[in-house]
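REVIEWER CHECKLIST
Item 1: Sequence provided? yes
Item 2: Single chain? yes
Item 3: Sequence as submitted:
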Amino acid sequence: MIMGLVARSDVKEAVELAGKVADFLVEKGVEIVLEVQLARELGRHEARQCELEDMDVDLVVAIGGDGTILRTQSFISHRKTPLIGINMGTVGFLTEIDPENAFSALEQIIAGNYFVERRNQLLVWHNHDLPRALNEVVLMTRKPAKMLHIQISVDDEIVEELRADGLIIATPSGSTAYSMSAGGPIIDPKVKAFIIVPICPFKLGARATVVSDESVIKVKLLREGKKAIAVIDGQFEEEINYMDEIVFRKSENCAYFVRLTKDFYRKVREKLTKGGIS
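Item 4: Structure as written out by the authors:
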């Protein structure tokens, strides 16, 4: 087995744990490939290393929070490489392992005691294909305290026209992220759906809507002189202008996660109890 190793390089504890994980895996006879930045932080210039997008391994271990998971997954999804996260963030809905259980969990993986879970992603189009979203796309104004005037349609049927601070289009994976904080429902990852969530709408009847993941969602910016930005998984920004249309549909490329247990609801209970405070 060959494992790739990635860590949040600006967090000392994550880099230190990555070094321990690397030593542990080598001791167990696992071949490892370090992300270039991590190899630099660890001072292991002689180690096998490469950029994330070039990492051709059996699975990737990412040490950090959900942001690290989202960044890593965006680079490796074209290879359909499964990913497992060790949580060094706050809540960490996408991570599978806590630091104190890291080495026992890795032993299970080496022994083959795991399964791979597939998660749907959003394909995003605005004049050209944009990066895929695993969690969500957030539309917002560039200026604080300003509202967007938007039209939302599903399968070419207008669902709503409204003014709001913004709009979230989320996957089930993203239902426990910004979408949830904005009042959207928690969706089991097995449910084939997307969520449309207005952010602080100036309309009492505007509520979160769950639609089939086979649907095509279109959002149009209606007010002249108002620009918006689309933020994809907190990693990529695209400017949206007046009467521009941004289109969302299910991507043919899924994300793949290594899982040790089937306990989605227990994780939700535990992580929501913490409230994002570590």
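Item 5: Key structural point noted by reviewer: The longest strand covers residues 157-170.
Item 6: Recommendation: ____
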